[in-house]
Design a protein that fits this description.
Chain B: Belongs to the NIP7 family. Chain B: Its main location: nucleus. Chain B: GO terms for molecular function: RNA binding. The structure holds two protein chains of two kinds. By secondary structure, chain A is mainly alpha-helical. Among the domains of chain A are: 2-86, no CATH class; 124-151, no CATH class. Helices cover 42% and strands 6% of the residues of chain A. Chain A is built from ten helices and six strands, in the order H-E-E-H-H-E-E-H-E-E-H-H-H-H-H-H. Chain A has helices at residues 2-17, 46-51, 53-74, 109-117, 144-151, 167-193, 211-222, 262-277, 285-298, 308-321; strands at residues 30-32, 37-39, 77-80, 83-86, 127-130, 135-138. Helices cover 27% and strands 32% of the residues of chain B. By secondary structure, chain B is α+β, with helices and mostly antiparallel strands. Chain B is built from seven helices and twelve strands. Chain B folds into two domains: 2-88, Nuclear Transport Factor 2, Chain: A; 94-174, Archaeosine Trna-guanine Transglycosylase, Chain: A, domain 4. Chain B has helices at 6-20, 24-28, 49-55, 86-89, 101-108, 150-155, 171-174, and strands at 2-3, 29-30, 33-40, 43-48, 68-73, 79-81, 96-99, 113-114, 118-121, 130-135, 140-146, 161-168. Classes of the chains: A mainly alpha, B alpha+beta. The A-B interface holds A 242, 254, 256-257, 259-260, 262-263, 265-266, 268-270, 272-273, 276-277, 284, 286-287, 290-291, 293-294, 297 and B 2-3, 5-6, 9-10, 13-14, 17, 21-22, 24-25, 28-29, 34, 36-37, 49, 77, 123-124, 126-127, 149-152, 154.
């Protein structure tokens, strides 16, 4: 019996060394087992805290940890190679990210355009069947240049081109030109993304430039004299390019007109109207012919400067031609039609 | 609100003169007070001096419209008349086209006018001149450009376009949001 008593005593001592696994709490803890997190919402026991802070916190932490571990033991466990493992549920707490969200890459000019227009990228297969070579040909990369060579061993001379021109050299040059253009655009996109201002290149290829670009170039070139183009001659119908005011010093820059009294403004406007209305009319052959046709059609005097006086004459002339049948209300009438008879 | 530059005034008046000819003077010289043209965001407004003064109390970026909008300057610096200008074009119009009742609706939906829809046409219209369109009850419906001169109209076949549509009062409903 002594032995049993000893064992019992020892186990009681052991049990005293280990604290109990049950913990009493006023409020239940909140658990998020996915992140192994337990939150204790209970108030501190102020009396114990003041008496012995360290012991109190140590004990509190042990108790809470015990509760968390109790909770983990409630999960289904399995045994893998002598170790007891459990699968934690997905986490509920959202952790803030350490680093700021990366900024989206700035779009290239084409990407921006495609996005605005809703153009979607089409996936192309790398290999495609070539009818001429009767084999599968890669779209780019390995063996592409070789197939190109195989395919274009002979080139047609276009009907409208110089027969002595080397079409092969032309093709090579066109290709290198395209590559260079792509490189330029790539650099331009980088500059745009990094907000670096790139100097303007002006007109590179006058043959391929638009009329607008050329006009801008002319306007800039004209202003590039010591006197800012003040004494440059103008062609008869030459217009100045618009929207390049930052390139041309002075002159073409838009300025807000100073306010003037309304009467002065009216006078200015009237002067402009007069100058428009008094413009010598262009000789418009088509309208002249149309007028002539309408005059001859009505066969009476339609000249505006000869008024009612000549009207009688015209009638007389008609009569003198003689013996015209009455038209039975189907003829063309002059004037507004109807109204007072003027005799 | 700013004054039109001389160049722009000239462009505006040239356009207006296509429709109302020398009657532009009547728009500028009015017996009932001073009226002027003002420009904001490329749109041209025809405003009486009195209202213009009142409008100066409002910051320009908050101001949507003052007076009557006549139209707008395009990016290529041409002037385009809006239907809102019809109130001032119709009384002074020099060349007019009257529509048959059957084509009225067609025109108000934005179609050109064919010879068959032509009710009446004033004399001596030149080709591509601006014309104001009326219905037979003399209600102005819109304006356009003459596709054929009056003399040519008489000889044209019934399906040929007589007048190109530019603006009609149907736009008040159709393009309400971009009329301003």
């Amino acid at each position: 019996m002594d032995v049993i008593g000893e064992i019992l005593q020892r186990t009681a001592e052991d049990a005293e060394k280990y604290k109990p696994i049950t913990v009493e709490k006023h409020l239940d803890l909140e658990y998020d087992l996915g992140t192994l997190l337990a939150v204790d919402n209970n108030d501190f026991d102020l009396a114990k805290l003041r008496r012995n802070q360290n012991d109190y916190f140590l004990n509190l932490t042990r108790e809470n940890t015990q509760l968390l571990i109790n909770k983990i033991w409630e999960l289904p466990t399995e045994r893998v190679e002598e170790a007891i493992v459990t699968k934690l549920p997905p986490q509920k707490t959202v952790l803030p990210r350490m680093k700021p969200v990366p900024k989206p890459k700035p779009l290239t000019k084409w990407q921006q355009f495609a996005k605005d227009k809703g153009i979607q990228k089409k996936k192309k297969t790398k290999l495609s069947w070539d009818e001429q070579l009767q084999k599968w040909v890669p779209l780019y990369g390995f063996k592409r240049a070789k197939t190109e060579k195989e395919k274009n061993w002979l080139l047609e001379v276009p009907g409208n081109s110089d027969p002595m021109e080397d079409q092969f050299a032309k093709k090579v040059e066109a290709k290198s030109e395209r590559v260079a253009k792509n490189e330029l655009q790539r650099l331009r996109n980088i500059a745009k993304a990094r907000k670096i201002s790139v100097p303007r290149v002006g007109v590179i290829n006058p043959d391929a430039s638009s009329a607008k670009e050329l006009q801008a170039a002319v306007t800039v070139a004209k202003a590039s004299t010591a006197s800012l183009g003040k004494f440059q001659e103008k062609l008869p119908k030459e217009k100045e390019a618009r929207g390049i005011s930052e390139l041309v010093p002075g002159g073409t820059r838009k300025r807000k007109l100073p306010p003037v009294p309304a009467t002065v403004e009216k006078k200015e406007n009237l002067a402009i109207v007069d100058s428009i209305l008094n413009k010598r009319p262009k000789l418009d052959i088509e309208s002249a012919i149309a007028k002539q046709i309408s005059n001859s059609h009505v066969s009476s005097n339609h000249n505006e400067n000869s008024g009612s006086k000549s009207y009688g004459k015209g009638q007389k002339a008609n009569k003198s031609k003689g013996a015209k049948k009455p038209k039975g209300a189907k003829g063309q009438r002059k004037g507004k039609g109807g109204g007072r008879k003027r005799r | 609100m700013k004054r039109l530059s001389e160049e722009r005034t000239r462009i505006l008046f040239e356009k207006l003169s296509k429709y109302i000819g020398s009657n532009i003077k009547l728009l500028i010289e009015r017996p009932d007070g001073l009226y002027c043209f003002r420009e904001q965001k490329d749109r041209v407004y025809y405003v009486s001096e009195k209202i213009l003064k009142l409008s100066s109390n409002i910051p320009p970026e908050k101001l949507i419209s003052v007076g009557t909008c006549f139209g707008k300057f395009t990016k290529s610096n041409k002037f385009r008349l809006h239907i809102t200008a019809l109130n001032y074009l119709a009384p002074y119009a020099q060349s007019k086209i009257w529509l048959k009742p059957s084509t009225e609706q067609q025109f108000l939906y934005g179609h050109h006018i064919t010879k068959s829809g032509l009710g009446r046409i004033s004399e001596n219209i030149e080709k591509y001149q601006g014309v104001v369109i009326y219905n037979m009850q003399d209600l102005p419906l819109g304006f356009g450009a003459a596709a054929k001169s009056t003399a040519e109209c008489k000889l044209a076949d019934p399906l040929a376009s007589v007048c190109f549509h530019q603006a009609d009062i149907g736009e008040y409903i159709r393009s309400e949001e971009d009329l301003l």
